[in-house]
Amino acid sequence: MRKVLQVRFSEIYLKGLNRPYFLRMLVERVRDAVKHVQGHVWLSDSRIYVSDATDVDEALRRITRVFGVHSVCRAIELEKTDFQAVRDMAVQMMQNETGSFKVEARRSDKRFPMDSPAINADIGGYVLERVPALTVDVHRPQHLLSVEIRDKAYLYTKPIPGVGGMPVGTNGRATVLLSGGIDSPVAAWMVAKRGVSMSAVHFQSPPYTSERARDKVVKLAQLLSESLCGIRLHLVPFTDIQMQIHEKCHPDYTTLIMRRYMMRIAARIAHAERAQALVTGESIGQVASQTMHALQCTDAVADMPVFRPLIGFDKQEIITLAEKIGTFETSSLPYEDCCTVFTPKHPATKPKMEIILEGEAKLDSDALVEAALAGREILEL
Ligand code: ATP
Ligand code: MG
C-alpha cells in the first residue's frame, strides 16, 4: 500500500493523434510544479501520479494550478490481486463518515475478473455491513468512493478541481502588454491557460513613474510566473515618446497615440521572440481608449493578431478572476502607471484617423521606437 496523488487531465483527451505529445508536456509541467517538494512523477494508463512529496499539501496546491489539470486526488494504491485488501481499505476510508454513499468503480484493466457493477456491489455491500452510520444512495450520495482498477487498484474520495486548460508550451507564444493594473495580468493568465507561453512588455515613464511602480509590475510578473511556467519581462522606457506626443499631438488624442506606440513596440518585441500574437487587458468601453472606435485605431498598427480575452467582461468579473489567480492585491497598490501621467481632460471616444496620423507625422517614430527598444531592461522571472 502507498499514498499517491492521482492527477487527471482536462481537454487533452480531445487531442487524437497528438495526445502523447500533450501528455508528455503535461507530465513535464507537473514535474516542474512539484520539483520544490521533491515529488516523484510518472504517467501510467492515462493518469499522472505523484508520490513521495516532502509536503503533500503544497504539492496538491501547486498541481491544481497547472494548466491542463482537470483534478487531483489523494489516492491509496494497492495491488489489485489482493482484493480483500481493497475491501478493507474501502472500510477504513469510509469508517468515520455518516450519511449516504456510493461506490463508483472504473475498470480500465478489462482482464480483471470483476466488472464495474460487480465491484460496486461487492465493495458497497462490504462497507455497508461494517459502517453502520452509512446508507447507500446511488443517485445523490453525500460521499463518493471511487475505485479504479488499472495497473494497480486506486481508491479515493474527494477529487480537488484543477484549473483546466492546456499545458503551457503546447500552443505557441504570445506577448502581453502588462500594466500594473488589474486587467492585464488576468488577460495573460487566460491566454496562458490555453497552453500559450507568455512574455511581457511593460512601459515605464521615469521620473513620472516611480521605482515602486516598477517593483509592482515585477511582483505581478513573479506572481504569474508559476502558472505561466516562467516569464520574460521587458521593461521599456517610454518617457521620451510620451513627452513628444504631449508636445506635438492633439491633446484629446494623447492616450490613444501613446497606445499605438505601445502596440508598435510590443509587436517588435513579439516578433523577435517568435510570438504569434499580442495580448492586452482591454474590455469594450471600460475607458475612453477602449471604445470600439479607439480599439480599431490601436489595432491598426499591430501587424499580428491582438487578443483581448477580457473584451466582454465587466470590471467586477475581472476582479473576481484576479482574486482567484492571486494578483488582485498587488494590482490594487496605488502606484501611478505611465497611462495616468498626462491624461487628456477630454479623451476622444470616437477618434478620427486623420488627426492621429497628422499628430504621428510630427514625431520621428522610427528613432523613438528604436531608442525605446535599445533602452529596455530584460528580466527572466
Ligand atoms: P489594467 O488594469 O491592466 O491596467 P486598465 O483598465 O488600466 O488595464 P488601460 O490603462 O487603458 O486599462 O490599459 C489598457 C491595456 O493596455 C492594459 O490592459 C495593458 O494591456 C495595456 N497597458 C496599459 N498601460 C500599460 C503599460 N504601462 N505597460 C504595458 N501595457 C500597458
Ligand atoms: Mg492600466
Q: Write down the domain tally.
A: 2
CATH topological fold name of the largest domain: Rossmann fold
* CATH class identity of the largest domain: Alpha Beta
Question: Oligomeric status of the shown chains?
Answer: single chain
Helix coverage percent: 25-40%
Give the CA-CA distance, first to last residue.
40 Å
Bound molecules: adenosine-5'-triphosphate, magnesium ion
Series of secondary-structure elements, N-terminal to C-terminal: EHEEHEHEHEEEEEHEHEHHEHEHHHHE
Description:
There is one protein chain. By secondary structure, the protein is an alpha/beta fold. The protein has two domains: 2-161, 2-Layer Sandwich (VC0802-like); 173-380, Rossmann fold (3-Layer(aba) Sandwich), CATH 3.40.50.620. Helix content is 40%, strand content 22%. The chain has 13 helices and 15 strands. It has helices spanning 19-34, 56-64, 83-94, 116-130, 183-192, 211-228, 239-248, 254-272, 292-299, 315-325, 328-331, 353-361, 365-374, and strands spanning 2-9, 40-44, 47-51, 69-78, 99-107, 134-136, 143-149, 153-156, 160-164, 173-177, 197-204, 232-237, 277-279, 306-307, 377-380. Strands 1, 2, 3, 4, 5, 6, 7, 8 and 9 form a nine-stranded mixed β-sheet that branches. Strands 14-13-10-11-12-15 form a six-stranded mixed β-sheet, with helices on both faces. α9 (292-299) links the parallel β13 (277-279) and β14 (306-307). α3 (83-94) crosses α4 (116-130), α5 (183-192) runs parallel beside α6 and α7 (239-248) runs antiparallel to α8. The longest helix is centred in the C-terminal third of the chain and has 19 residues, at 254-272. The chain is elongated and about 85 Å long. The model has no long low-confidence stretch (mean pLDDT 94). It binds adenosine-5'-triphosphate (ATP) and magnesium ion (MG). The site of adenosine-5'-triphosphate has 20 residues, from α5 and β11.
